[in-house]
């Protein structure tokens, strides 16, 4: 089915480990985003990408790395996970300008023990 | 970074009641979006308001963008249990072409039958 998919849906890992969250969209949207959602904070932007090979930091980028070698994929890596990175992570994509809707995946619930 | 204050953060009402959710900022946004999120899913766009003073209606939901484009409200008439969910406002930061979204903290609405 066309759309935006995230994997895995749930992940439990330990502090210090590297973990990668995957995001794939089938619309060929130019823009892709990674957010984290924590109680009381709404959604906070981690990184975004305007096109393949173009990425930029959002509000809370520390501890995260992204890449975008292909338009449809935008993986997010936690190089050395910390407990403060326990959260629900959402990937989103958008075509064109900022007034266009962002289309979200169903999220990855990440727990770091 | 611009901030969006959303209120109330939690609202529990009986079916048939009316309610209003507010989204306020000291900064001007090029446009503002409202999303609704169900448990275990990503947010889904309800509406985008672009022009100061603009009012949009979506069945029993009425959205208004402030004249100065610094605030917005969502009014629900005769709420139903199906309206239960998390409502998020999001302002488009920067130019409308490349703008990122700044989210409010969200309003959790519970409508009891």
Reading the helices and strands of chain A in chain order gives EEEEEEEEEEE
Radius of gyration of chain B: 14 Å
State the helical fraction of chain A. Answer: under 10%
User: Can you give the mean pLDDT of chain B?
Assistant: 92
Poorly predicted regions of chain B = none
- Helical coverage of chain B, percent range: under 10%
Tally of helical segments of chain B: 0
Structural class of chain A: mainly beta
Supply the helix-strand structural class of chain B: mainly beta
For the record, give the distance between the C-alpha atoms at the N and C termini of chain A, rounded to a whole number.
34 Å
Shape of chain A: globular
Assembly of the depicted chains: heterodimer
Number of strands of chain A: 11
The major pleated sheet of chain A works out as: 7 strands, mixed
Low-confidence stretches of chain A: none
Discrete helix count of chain A? 0
Shape of chain B: globular
Provide structural commentary:
The complex is a heterodimer of chains A (113) and B (113). Chain A is mainly beta and 113 residues long. Chain A has strands at residues 4-7, 10-13, 19-25, 31-38, 42-51, 54-57, 64-66, 76-78, 87-94, 103-104, 108-112. In chain A, the strands form two sheets. In chain A, strands 2, 4, 5, 6, 9, 10 and 11 form a seven-stranded mixed beta sheet that branches. In chain A, strands 1-3-8-7 form a four-stranded antiparallel beta sheet, with no helix packed on it. Chain A starts with a strand and ends with a strand. The mean pLDDT of chain A is 94. With 113 residues, chain B is mainly β. In chain B, strands 2, 4, 5, 9, 10 and 11 form a six-stranded mixed beta sheet that branches. A five-stranded antiparallel beta sheet of chain B has the order 1-3-8-7-6, with no helix packed on it. The model of chain B has no long low-confidence stretch (mean pLDDT 92). The interface between A and B is medium-sized, with 23 and 30 residues.
């Amino acid at each position: 089915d066309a759309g935006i998919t995230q994997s895995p849906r749930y992940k439990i890992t330990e502090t210090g480990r590297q973990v990668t969250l995957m995001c794939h969209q089938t619309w060929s949207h130019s823009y892709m985003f990674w957010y984290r959602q924590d109680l009381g904070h709404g959604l906070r932007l981690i990184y975004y990408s305007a096109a393949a090979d173009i990425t930029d930091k959002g509000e809370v980028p520390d501890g995260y790395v992204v890449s975008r070698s292909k338009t449809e994929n935008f993986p997010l890596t936690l190089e050395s996970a910390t407990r403060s990175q326990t959260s629900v992570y959402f990937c989103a994509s958008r075509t064109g300008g900022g007034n266009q809707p962002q289309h979200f995946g169903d999220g990855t619930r990440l727990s770091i023990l | 970074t611009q901030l969006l204050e959303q209120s109330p953060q939690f609202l529990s009402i009986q079916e048939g009641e009316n309610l209003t959710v507010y989204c306020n900022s000291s900064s001007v946004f090029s446009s503002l979006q409202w999303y609704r999120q169900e448990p275990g899913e990503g947010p889904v766009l309800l509406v985008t308001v672009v022009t100061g003073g603009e009012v949009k209606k979506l069945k029993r939901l009425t959205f208004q963008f402030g004249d100065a484009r610094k605030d917005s409200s969502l009014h629900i008439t005769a709420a139903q249990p199906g309206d239960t969910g998390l409502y998020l406002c999001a302002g488009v930061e920067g130019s409308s072409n490349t703008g990122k979204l700044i989210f409010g903290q969200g309003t959790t609405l519970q409508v009891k039958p």
